[in-house]
Amino acid sequence: MGVRKRLKIGVHCSIRKGHKNALYEAYELGCSCLQMFTHSPRIWKFILPSEKEIEEFKLLRKQLGLSPLAIHTAYLPNPASSIQEIYKKTRDLLLLEFELAEMFSADYLVMHPGSYSEGKKIQDGLRQVVSCIDYCFEKTIAKFGNIHFKLLLENVCGNGRKIGRTFSEIAEIIFRSKFPKKIGICIDTAHAFAFGYNITTEEGISELLYEIKTNIGHKKIMLIHLNDTTSPLGSRIDRHYHIGKGCIGIEGFKTILRYFAEYPLLLETPKETSFDRVSPYDKKNLDMVRNLITHSQ
Ligand SMILES: [Zn+2]
Ligand SMILES: [Zn+2]
After folding, report:
1. Ligand minimally distant from the alpha carbon of residue 189
2. Is residue 49 part of a domain?
3. In angstroms, what is the span from residue 194 Cα to ligand 1's centroid?
4. Residues with CB in 5 Å of ion ligand 1
5. Range of the domain at 32
6. Predicted pLDDT at 173
C-alpha cells in the first residue's frame, strides 16, 4: 500500500429502504465513508427514526468500519431567507437536522447557506444564516450537553441570490457565528468550477487555496464533494456529472486529486438507476477516482 494513508472515499447513499441500507450500499461499493440524508430532502415533515433504529445503525456502521459519516441537510430549508415564515420553518427543520446528526453520531453535517430574499442585500442573508445556525447550535448543545459533529458549509455554484459562492462569503458566516470552532467547510468541485474557479489548473487551485487560507484557514477544509459537471466554467449552473466525463475532465481531476486526495472524498454523481439497487455508475466513478489517484502522483 505504500506510505499513503488509507484512502477515504465514498458516495451519497440512499435511505429509501431505511438508514441501515445506506451503510450496506456503501459497504457493497467498497466505500470507506459515506454521505446520506436523515430523511427525504424534499419534504418539511417526516417521521423521526426510532431510538432502536438509530442504535442499530450506529452498531452496523461500527461493524462495517465506515468513517466519516456525512449527513447532508434537506433541500427545502433556506436559512438566508428574510421571509419570517420560511425562516422559522427552516430553523425548526435545521434544528432537527442538528439533533439527528448528533443522535446518528455523524462526523459532519453539510449544508448550503441558502438564498437571500428578493429586495434584500447579501448582508441581510448572511445575518439570517448566522442567527439560524447559532440558534441550532445553542439548542442542540442545551439538549445534548455538547456537539460532536462539525457543521460544514458547502460552496455553491452561485445562481440567483445564493450565498456561499466564494470562500470569503463562507468565512463571514463562520467568523460571525458564536461557534466558529464547530464549523468547517466542504468544497464541491462541480460548484466551484461552475461558479468560475478554474480548478482544472494548478493556478486555479492555488488561487482557491489561497482564498481559503487567507479568509478561513486550510484546517477548516474537512470534506471534498468530488463531482464533475456538464456546466462550463463560470456558467453558474448546477449539473453534476460522472467523474472525468464532464467539463472538469480526466486531466482536471488528476490536478484536483494531487491536492485533495488526502481528504475524505464523497461523490454525488448521477446514479442513472432506480434507488432499489446499487448504481453501476457509482462503481465506475469510484474506480475512476481510485485510478486517477494512482496516476496523479
Ligand atoms: Zn450539497
Ligand atoms: Zn455537493
Report:
1. 2
2. yes
3. 14
4. 154
5. 9-296
6. 98
Distance 111 CA to ligand 1 centre (A): 6
The span from the CA of 258 to the CA of 205, in Å, is: 10
Q: How far is the CA of 227 from the centre of ligand 1 (A)?
A: 11
Mention every residue, 6+ apart, whose C-beta is less than 8 A from residue 254: 292, 295, 296
Q: Do residues 236 and 185 touch, judged by C-beta distance below 8 A? A: no
Tell me, yes or no, whether 2 lies in a domain.
no
Please state the pTM of the whole predicted model. Answer: 0.96
Q: How many angstroms does the Cα of residue 188 sit away from the middle of ligand 2?
A: 5
- Encode pLDDT of 38-86 as tens digits: 998 888 888 899 999 999 999 999 999 999 999 999 989 999 999 999 9
Domain annotation covers residue 4:
no
pLDDT at 297: 66
Q: How far apart are CA 233 and CA 117, in angstroms?
A: 26
The enclosing domain of 130 has a CATH number of: 3.20.20.150
Q: Please count the structural domains in the chain.
A: 1
pLDDT in tens, 164-180: 999 999 999 999 999 99
Q: Which long-range contacts (CB under 8 A, 24 or more apart) does 244-248 make?
A: 244/288, 244/292, 246/190, 247/193, 248/189, 248/190, 248/193, 248/199, 248/200
| Residue 268 covered by a domain | yes
238 CA to middle of ligand 1, Å?
A: 10
Query: Could you say which ligand is closest to the alpha carbon of residue 73?
Result: 1
Among the bound ligands, the one closest to the CA of 225: 2
For residue 221, the CA-to-ligand 1 centroid distance in Å is 15
